[in-house]
Amino acid sequence: MTRSARLRRRLVEHLLDEDVLHAPEWIAAFRAVPRHVFLPRFFMPAGGLWAAVDRDDPGWLETVYSRDVLVTQLDDDPDRWELARRTGPVAGTPTSSSSMPSIMAIMLEELRVRDEQRVLEIGTGTGYNAALLSHRCGAGLVSTVDIDPVIVGEARERLAEAGYRPACAVGDGELGFPAGTMFDRVLCTASVSSIPVAWLAQTVPGGLVVTTLNRPIGAGLVRLVAGEDGTGQGHVLARDGRFMPLRAHRLAQADPLPMPSRDDWEQTRLPLSTLLQPRKQFEFFAGLAMPGVRPVRDHDGTDPHTAGGPGESGVALVHPDGSWVRHRKRAGADEVAQGGPRALWELAEAAYVDWCELGKPERDRFGVTVTGDRQEFWLDTPDGRTWPLT
């Protein structure tokens, strides 16, 4: 057995231990598809920057078969890796990656693919996920599309090297596959702020669409059943997942926050982590109750009025209308300061009370309905309490 084959088997064992991989067909795919073919080079974090890594570097193969997400592009620029290789670590925002194998396994299993079904993947990326789909589905049944021609070209070459030849197209994934083929399953490996109607139009009635939502707070996986007329209805899934957004669905950068005065800070019994951590379960409901509010990195957390020196730098909440909340830990207590036209933290505390009174519903109690003129979430039943998707 080759070294890479041993590492693939070890990766599968990790996925089994994490309870994210169950179906024999997908176990066989993860054991067979050589992930290293699709990741000849990538970026690794290096002190706030990104270092270039390729197959000549020690530990490259072990890193490829790790459980980590591996960044393959910065700032939509295919030349940044070469620059980092020449000059050393560079700054940048990740714009393409090979996702964590665990979330890939979750999404592939949630797709519920059956034999002889045609599958469309939105977001080709490295091509690794398309290879897993091709191994499971067989020749001629998988199509993949990506907006970046460089990404598609490299993925097509690596897929062929690994022995797979899905239909690869360059195009805006929000519009589906350029040829207009109908599919039994649609899987998006990027996140979206709303469900593109083209996906449902290209899905046979009764077919499934699985994607992740690009929500500022409370993102996650959804699975929709396509209707007869381009509509869809489904559920938020219990197993969570987060992906980079499609380019048209990215969020704009937030403006710098004002500095609170000493008297602006007040204690709260609601930790910010309860609002933002998916495992806390309140996070999904908070996103519904606080539309447009999103977390941002609070790079300037310095509080000149704190006797002990700089305050804690962490995460803040902002809204496009200019409202904001800063959070800090001080003497073991949670404190917030807020400003702008609305008191966002009061909204957060009220949402938490509402969530508790509803019985603390977890994410899989929520459903999604998509029609030509509306997209909304609902709790328990489509005719129950609703919230707009965007």
Automatic annotation (TrEMBL):
A Pfam match: PCMT
This protein's GO CC annotations: cytoplasm
Statement: the UniProt record of this protein carries the keyword ATP-binding: no
InterPro entries: PCMT (IPR000682), SAM-dependent_MTases_sf (IPR029063)
GO molecular function, one term: protein-L-isoaspartate (D-aspartate) O-methyltransferase activity
Top-rank taxon: Bacteria
Subcellular location: Cytoplasm
Signal peptide: none
UniProtKB keywords: Cytoplasm, Methyltransferase, S-adenosyl-L-methionine, Transferase
Enzyme's top EC category: transferase
Enzyme Commission designation: 2.1.1.77
GO biological process: methylation
Family: Belongs to the methyltransferase superfamily. L-isoaspartyl/D-aspartyl protein methyltransferase family.
PANTHER family: PROTEIN-L-ISOASPARTATE O-METHYLTRANSFERASE, PROTEIN-L-ISOASPARTATE(D-ASPARTATE) O-METHYLTRANSFERASE
UniProt-recorded name of the protein: Protein-L-isoaspartate O-methyltransferase
